[in-house]
């Protein structure tokens, strides 16, 4: 419970006390963004590297949280240390706004906070996924679990640091201290809550939280996605869920497991108790999918809320296999406050068949047309460097290799460097992907039929 507890619990006292003398001058002297990028690694054994990671440990975050409360009013001031004024003209008094689309009927674009996480040998995929989902208005937290080498983590941080676009937008963060995330266990819930708490503590105004594993990929541009989501109420959670348990009862809910990542420094095989337990009767269990699109208010409810439901279920699911696919659906549907905000569709394209009951089968070029037709926003799972990824880049995202996905904020010549000249980030240029997504969402919400699929 140590890991998952840390995300939900109030700031820990001890490490704070220790380090407070060390950090406050650094943390208060500059806005949080720039400070976190230049922090030194406090671990004595590691050679001090100045470029460094955005996030080091929960204890450190507690401190930054405390200081961000006192400095939040000044955290976006100063044209030299904040995000580039060209990208965010509205945040600065003297702007050079470039307007070529003045459609006033469009609501302001929302923002999505992404956790992009992977494992050993996933650093290239994580970076590709970052480029394919990039938008200056969003927030990104990149995570490589402990099976990846420190060098991999360093390479990801260096690449992020050296990219002029990420530097200008200041919205990509790399988790320096990895969390254990064993997909078949319960530690991924702890990682998701930890990541959301980091993003909340940064006090950035994001609206939705999305966890992407390295084997996922977008099927629409961020302009498409943000455009469609700007028309949706900001309390809609897109979560596959069902109270029909079926085969999952014997494989997912009755076994008692202990995830080694929660208490052992070295990851080992999961521990299964010989006994099985009954299904709970104090609350209803809902099963679902590990991918979901969750609102900020719901994440705050899970992490900061005074209602004890999220913590109670967290403790129950700590000993259940694959709990990430069940935790959020169960919290949502057992909560009176949130049970009417859930849409039973996660906007992810994935195929389960007889041979892939619990994990979707790998997608390839043969699936491309179906993926497009589905109107989904993301797909999973994709093999590293599968040719279908290039097809998606070319046909759906308009992204050239090594570049970020273009959007309305990119003003350069078409080609590799379109996004090296930037304009206002809040101007979206949705394409055909937004029509596909719109059709899918309209179908979901039409006639209020989504109500009859809520929490059943
Ligand atoms: C939400 O919770 C309330 C109170 O428990 C209940 O009356 C209502 O039917 C629930 N709604 C759904 C969609 O489950
Ligand atoms: C999510 O639910 C929708 C319908 O409710 C279904 O079509 C889709 O296959 C499900 N996706 C996953 C990943 O389970
Ligand atoms: C894609 O995968 C399916 C099922 O795994 C397979 O039948 C098909 O031949 C594959 N197509 C390509 C182009 O590799
Ligand atoms: C894109 O970049 C590659 C290598 O950097 C270069 O060879 C190619 O000509 C560029 N393409 C365009 C359209 O600028
Ligand atoms: C919505 O309602 C109309 C008329 O009541 C019906 O023709 C249509 O098929 C319904 N659409 C869906 C998606 O249920």
Automatic annotation (TrEMBL):
Location of this chain's protein in the cell: Membrane
Transmembrane regions listed in the UniProt entry: 50-69
Highest taxon of source: Eukaryota
Transit peptide among keywords: no
Comp. bias regions, Low complexity: 1-20
Keyword Glycosyltransferase: yes
Membrane-related topology note: Single-pass type II membrane protein
Residues covered by region (Disordered): 1-23
Keywords, comma-separated and alphabetical: Glycoprotein, Glycosyltransferase, Membrane, Transferase, Transmembrane, Transmembrane helix
The protein, known as: Uncharacterized protein
Organism: Stylosanthes scabra
